[in-house]
Amino acid sequence: MVQHLVDLLDTWLPSYQEDWVLAVLTQVQGSSYRKPGAIMLFHPMGKSLGMLSGGCLEADLRRHAQRAIQTQQVIQLTYDATDESDTSYQLGCGGIVNIMMVSLNKSNNYLGLVSVHDALMRSHSGVYQIDIVADGTPADQLNGHFVEQKSEQATVITLNTKTHKEAFEDHSVLHIPIRPPVHIGIFGGGLDAQPISQMAQTLGWKVTVFDERTAYARTYDFPGCQIIKKATKDVSSSLLASLDAAFVMSHNLQIDAKTLQVLQPLSLAYISLLGPTHRRDKVLSMAELNIDDFSGYFSAPAGLALGGELPGSVGLSILSQCHGVLYQSKITSLDTVMLS
User: Fold this and answer.
1) DSSP string covering 275-328, please?
2) Which residues make beta-bridge pairs with 272?
3) pLDDT, tens digit, 9 for 90 and up, residues 182-213
4) Are 303 and 334 in contact (CB under 8 A)?
5) What is the largest CA-CA distance in the chain?
6) Which distant-in-sequence residues (6+ apart) come within 8 Å of 220 by Cβ?
7) What is the pTM of this model?
8) How many Cβ atoms are within 10 Å of 321's Cβ, its own excluded?
9) For residue 178, what is the enclosing H or E element?
């Protein structure tokens, strides 16, 4: 189940002029399944997109969505899981969550979500700003709009940038950081790259597989992925610059060395190189590079010490480490150097 906002909006857009309802998580006290800024969409025929909990609230939210359409008024909801004796929703998280629901229509310009989708499709980052108003406020009095970040500001919208609220006299504005899905490049289209591509797409990440060799990176082995059948040096700079992370795994010393030469100048958050330490040293020597030449997290041997040796286990190990780096989580690796 893909939950990135761009996927929700992809599904919503063909019928956006129908009576959809937006539900947005505006505040959390204590722990909760999702963080402030999480978005869900409800259709009057019962279809829903996204999730705001582990499944315990969605049925009740669907009922309130019908009311939001009928009244054309904002609905403010509070779910309190701090009382363990209250089994109404069995949230289990032990926190308090506030959710605002509002009908999307022409009079409130669909709260700017069409512009959000347009920006994400162009791989642009920014901040989605939506009014937080009192319960019962007419839906057409709400404003929502997307503020794109200029290219020099784009790095501000990182994966762990937090949603924040700005208070005014009669209302508040929720500022939700928005960025395109994570984009990873797999350099080497062998069989052991398939589990990585599959798991990454399950996370909602965009995957591009690079391999100039005829027998590798075949389209039917990597469904849903963009396939580039060129030497890395011949790939467009704009495509390479769009990557957040790179997995170098061609199993060919020369190809891996040439790939690292091309990737080294880029501002990638994570680069992994498959193989043991002695292979890493040989590849780096052939590329005339050192470990400290990379500006991001350079992992070789690649991955976390999870155990297992089959492609699925290795892929999980590498992808988990990459995920931890991108979201700036504390991780323990096999033999990894954190570079400044």
Assistant:
1) S-HHHHHHHHHHHT--GGG-SSEEESS-SB-----SHHHHHHHHHHHHHHHHTT
2) 247, 299
3) 999 999 999 999 999 999 999 989 999 999 99
4) yes
5) 69
6) none
7) 0.82
8) 26
9) strand 172-178
